[in-house]
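Async update (no meeting this week)

Hi team, since we skipped the sync, here's where things stand on the single-chain job. The sequence we agreed to prioritize is pasted below, unchanged from the tracker. I ran it this morning and attached the output directly underneath so nobody has to dig for it. Comments welcome in thread, and please keep replies under the output.
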Amino acid sequence: MNEQNAKKRILTFSLIAVALAFVATLLRVLCLFFFYDKIGYYQRAAALPIVSNIFYGASLVFFAIAARFLIKPEGDIAPPRKPAKLAALLPLAAMLVYLINISSTVFGKDAAWYELLLLVFGVVSAVFFGSVAFCAQPSSLTALSGVGCIIWLALAAMRSYLDFFVPMNSPDKLFFQLGAVGATLIVFSELRAMYRMSQPRAYFFGFFAGILAVSVASVSDLIANAADIFASYTLLYEDIVMLSILVYAVVRLFSGVCAETDK
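Output:
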């Protein structure tokens, strides 16, 4: 009975986390549509961007408190099941599209030095998602390529930082970099879970914080780009990859983690 109650708490917590991520994303989309200047900043003294940022921070605090007091500290996270393995094909496909795009420019005379590293670790990231989809876990290939995926996310954040067409302190850069951190939390949490080293509280906090950060960054950016809100937007394919990681994370939650935590 206690085990059943624990599963219900995890499921409830997961639903709340996804709902908070949806609201936080909606708030940022509204900010971009109605209170954003193409120079890269929100309009001065606009209330909604302040409310949006407070909601974002408060959601992270809620995740930390809820994970501490609502999630049991013992137990292992079940490895990915078939729905999650199928969902891993989505970031694999997104990464392959990304690699095709960056390959067309990486060897040009104007290519930045870090773009070659993005290509190399993008290939490693594709291997990671492929290994999640096709390999039995734990897998040494998944562990090694997962580290490479984390490096790719760090390089993507650095590419955002070095984009001088966007002001250095623009919220656009900050949210993308937070999204990269969130995707890193998801990948790192999965690596620990696959090797039975996860602590449920840390796992769920990392997953929910990651879902929030990736959703607010990638979904908002893609919608705003489709509406031609940005004056400069060079991270389309990176955002597509992060969106696919978000889909994987949500499928992973509701196809296995919420249903069962192994003893």
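Quick observations from my side:
The radius of gyration is 19 Å.
The beta strands are 36-37, 41-42, 76-77, 261-262.
Reply here if anything looks off.
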